[in-house]
Amino acid sequence: MPLVQDAEMQMLARAAAEFASGELIDCRQETDRFPFGPFFAVALEKAYNLDFLHVTLPVTMGGIGLNTTALCMVLDKLCQEDASLGAIILTHCFAQEILIQAGAGEILKNRAACAEKPENFLLACPLFNNPSEIHHVARLEKKGDRPVLSGRIDYLVLGGVADLALVPAAGQGQTSWTYYLVDLRQSSASISKPVLSHGIRCCPAVDIEFQKAEAVLVGFDGGGHALFKAAAAKLSVAAAAISTGIMKGSFREALTYAKEREQGGRRLLGWSDMQKMLSDMAVHLEIADMVVAEACRCLDQGVKDWEQKALAAAIHVQEAAVQVTTDGVQALGGVGYMQDFGQEKRFRDAKHIQACFGLTPLKRIRLLEQIIA
To answer: With respect to CATH, is domain 7-120 assigned 2.60.40.60?
Structure first.
């Protein structure tokens, strides 16, 4: 990202790049087999110890208190090699931001102080939908004066890793919904095996069934949509940074292959069709970098209508990432479809990350509604 960085941010970006090359590349093919292969628990614990999960958490709550720009730089570096860890961080930061917006910072402070390993710190939540659009929420009931949840939540991201989840719920006949914190270790929460996903496979998700599971109210009754809107607006820039990282990895691998591979008596890079494809990828990538950088600046400085700019940036960059990774597969020819190389994984990851915070067509409509309002 072409941004002015202070020494702390430069150090963080360098640590993320070194971690990605040292920890993620060698195990990328194996972890992409999850849930039929191993989960990268060791890499996640190292990322936790390096404070990649604490970037935007305020210092008063046990974090390092940096801004969204710093988070985007970390995600960009990590996702050049593997987007799964980036999606884990994004999921946690999204749930974390909802708690901060709801004034529940004491919960985060206590978890940061007591957490001995990632699962004691991470927060699970449904990252890939907007509960207001699909009305996929748990059923709120009462056990005395305490709230309890029943019903099913599909595709709860990090539900098989974190011990605490942030889930949407609504009472019988209610049109508005509310966020609740649920301890997934209680017997009234039944967790499925990890769901096999199309992309970012080592960011585990599960289906979960609640049967009068005890829960804690987050925010106020009926305030779920407002909390989702505020957190998604801020974290959509981070989702765009994941897509930018995926694009950079795809372009780098395509360019390296074109330099080394010969076809028809010359290197692939010598053919005009390959030059055009790579130049198109480079253009998309440079524009995406500038778009994310500007969106970060607007967000961190509180520029007027930054929410619209952040949402537009995410929509544009995520669509560009799909095009770039498509070209990245084609640049490698037949081997581009093979798992031995990273291109087909990047293509799947780019499509999957598009679904963050809801379906793209509905996000476009939300953007238009914001502009009209």
So the answer is: no
- Residue 2 in this model has a pLDDT that exceeds 60: no
Q: Within 13 Å, how many C-alpha atoms sit on residue 353's CB side? A: 43
Amino acid at the residue 94 = F
Pick the CATH number of 131-223 from 3.40.50.620, 3.30.110.40, 2.40.110.10, 3.40.50.11890: 2.40.110.10
Instruction: Look up the pTM and report it.
Output: 0.95
- Contact assessment for residue 327 and residue 16, using Cβ atoms and an 8 Å cutoff: no
- Residues 30-34 have a mean pLDDT of 91
* Cα–Cα distance for residue pair 309/233, rounded to 1 Å: 9
Distance of CA 366 to the CA centre of its chain: 20
Q: What's the topology of domain 225-372? A: Butyryl-CoA Dehydrogenase, subunit A; domain 3 (1.20.140)
3-state secondary structure 288-307: HHHHHHHHHHHHHHCCCCHH
At 245, list the tokens.
Answer: 């990282």
Query: Which has the closest alpha carbon to 212: 148, 164, 151?
Result: 148
Contact 100, 108 (CB under 8 A): yes
* For range 86-93, the mean pLDDT: 97
Domain-wise residue ranges, the chain: 7-120, 131-223, 225-372
252, 260 Cβ separation under 8 angstroms: no
